[in-house]
Amino acid sequence: MIRILNHGSAAGPLALEHPWRPEDGPPPALSTWPLADPPALWVRAGGRWRWAEVRARQDWPDGRVAYQVLVDLDGSTTMLLRTYWWPQPGLRVARRSASAPSREAGRGGGEMPVSHHSAAAGGIRPSRPAPTGR
Predict the structure, then answer these.
(1) Cβ partners under 8 Å of residue 52, min gap 6
(2) What totals of helices (H) and strands (E) does the chain contain, helices first?
């Protein structure tokens, strides 16, 4: 059984405490998107909504769904990988991908990562919207 990392209060939404382990039962089915076109969620943390790019969706055998996201929880620009149960009040859809998710190994997530620094130099634009100053 997967335990909960926090209680979904002011600390933020409910997160999984650890990745799947054999003692948790059957593994979840994983779906990924191309790194150049990931969906995104808003994650409520520290009283603010934080942009989080989705890295994977987990469909658990018991019907639960979790999203693995890359998120800066405190505004420090430190990106953390977190997995959250869906749906819950501390999460909202921020961006839908134009690409279909894939369950084939290496297909959805097999691209080379794109640095946001290379985007500033005229490369591929990041999918995150520009800050509004609020």
Answers:
(1) 40, 41, 42, 43, 69, 70, 71, 82, 94
(2) 1, 6
Other C-beta atoms lying within 10 Å of the C-beta of residue 51? 18
What φ, ψ does residue 14 adopt, rounded to 5°?
-65, 130
pLDDT score recorded for residue 130: 45
Full-model pTM: 0.71
**What pLDDT, on a 0 to 100 scale, did the predictor assign at position 106?**
61
- Sequence-distant contacts of 121-130: CB under 8 A, at least 24 apart: 124/36, 127/36, 127/37, 127/38, 127/40, 127/53, 127/95, 128/40, 128/51, 128/53, 129/51
- Spatial distance between the Cα atoms of 10 and 19, rounded to a whole number of angstroms: 23
* 36 residue type, one letter: A
- Give pLDDT, residue 14: 86
Question: Which amino acid, one-letter code, is at 126?
Answer: P
Walk along the chain (134 residues) in steps of 10 and give the mean pLDDT of each run. 41 82 93 95 96 96 95 95 95 96 70 39 45 47
Measured distance between the N- and C-terminal CA atoms of the chain, rounded to whole angstroms: 40
